[in-house]
Fold:
Amino acid sequence: MSHELGRLEDLPQDYRDDLKNLNLVPLWPSLRAVLPPGVPTRATQAVHWAYADIKPLLLKAGELTPIEKAERRVLVLANPGHGLENMKASPAMYLGLQLLLPGEWAPSHRHTPNAVRMVVEGEGAYTTVDGEQCPMHRGDLILTPTGLWHEHGHDGSEPVVWLDVLDLPLVYYMEASYHVNGSRQSVQPGSGDRAWTRAGVVPTHVFSRSDKRYPLLRYAWVDTRAALLAMADNDPALECVQVTYVNPETGDDAENILGFYALMLKPGQALTLPARSPSQVFHLIEGGVDVSTCGKTFELLEADTCCAPGYEPLTLTNRSADQAAFVFIADESPLHRKLGVYEAR
Ligand code: GTQ
Structure:
């Protein structure tokens, strides 16, 4: 017996017209497309964006478009598999490289999508989030979670570039994406990364409890890097030297939809990750790493970024025989876990 399902063309035209006029669709011609056998259909392609290609175009954008005409001067890393105009790296992830020139100001706003910034290069910029001024140094991760006011400023003398990672495609798809403009924030004293300096000891709230849902907004790279080196030193047999950026008060992922991690590859290490359902993004902070997936190998240099679809195994290889390499990873696993569709094969 054939398992071929009936096609739309098999149905008489007048019947198809009747259905269409009543906003009805027969399922069987599309059933296999929406529920394919064994593995999902993925529009996400494995794509590599080289920083050396992007930087001159980003600096050119700095000449062509004043900050007042851009608000956020960003070149979006768009996956051709999703259509460039849709500005998606993957179903739920948006990536952009943002340029801020000395003295520029990207005004205060808040929006429903969650964002993080991974600082790529340049000194002297800061992001003010919910009244907290977060200095931006290379490798720092700064959260701007849903609904929090944020603005970017720059007191240094060289261009500053960072990688924006947002869950914009998902929030837009949900018809829940919008922004509100605000006025310049007044900077409040204190910072989460001074209140929460060490794992294992957390602030005791004797008199009053902060009502901040996101107590830690800035994850300094010096601390994350030191944590990875200590983990590797502590357990030389540890295969995957990786940390997850978490909310230190709850232990949950730092944001609700996307997950963020820092991975250290030991000299010469090749790490094969299982096929997992969420798409992933890799951004090289330090060293030289090859990323192999979907029959392709990307030779990442520092500040390069690549993405990979879910349900594919992936190998990361440190090209150096004597230096560790450090990778920032973003993925969709908090979303997949919350929805109950997370899988590792
Ligand atoms: O810096 O606030 O890449 O609102 C896209 C949207 C950056 C930002 C982006 C944004 C921002």
In short: The domain at 47-182+217-339 is CATH 2.60.120.10 (Jelly Rolls). The chain has a mean pLDDT of 97.
